[in-house]
Amino acid sequence: MATERTFSILKPDATRRNLTGTINAVFEENGLRIVAQKRIHMSRAQAETFYGVHRERGFFNDLVGFMTSGPVVVQVLEGEDAVAKHREIMGATNPANAAEGTIRKMFAESIEANSVHGSDSAENAATEIAYFFAGTDIVG
Ligand code: ATP
Ligand code: MG
């Protein structure tokens, strides 16, 4: 397995409850390394573009409202098999279905306010990283 990079967001429910360090400790304990990071308040346009794949879904407007409701932390994580490992540590989208010990099981408030985002493929990771970071922002 190769070292790869993935894109992570600590969502507004996590920043509101001051959980950014607690959640990142779980990533670090599992061998993922934070190689770029910034705290931003996403604009509506940024959130709509980022979640554009879900534009036709019934929850899209609520999701964009939620993602712009407070600050988020956007970051790049690096490690062995980082895309799949990150998704495994996050747990299922709906915390009701998430496995014990996953971040969403431990911290998510609801299927929408589920604390974290993680890229679902290496290809999407590259696109998402480039949307928020310049190459020179990433220090491995
Ligand atoms: P993410 O892309 O944020 O990592 P995911 O890949 O597990 O999450 P997606 O299907 O891509 O799940 O959905 C994107 C986000 O939209 C979810 O994380 C959640 O915040 C929200 N969402 C998904 N399904 C629903 C739903 N049925 N009702 C409300 N919000 C939803
Ligand atoms: Mg997704």
Description:
- There is one protein chain.
- With 140 residues, the protein is an alpha+beta fold.
- Helix content is 39%, strand content 20%.
- The protein has seven helices and four strands, in the order βααβααβααβα.
- The protein has helices at 12-16, 20-29, 44-50, 60-67, 82-90, 103-107, 122-132, and strands at residues 3-10, 33-40, 72-80, 116-118.
- Strands 2-3-1-4 form a four-stranded antiparallel sheet, with helices on both faces.
- Adenosine-5'-triphosphate binds next to strand 4.
Which strand order spans the largest sheet, edge to edge or round the barrel?
A: 2-3-1-4
Enumerate the spans where pLDDT stays under 50 for 5 or more consecutive residues: none
| Residue share in helix | 25-40%
The tally of strands reads 4
End-to-end Cα distance = 18 Å
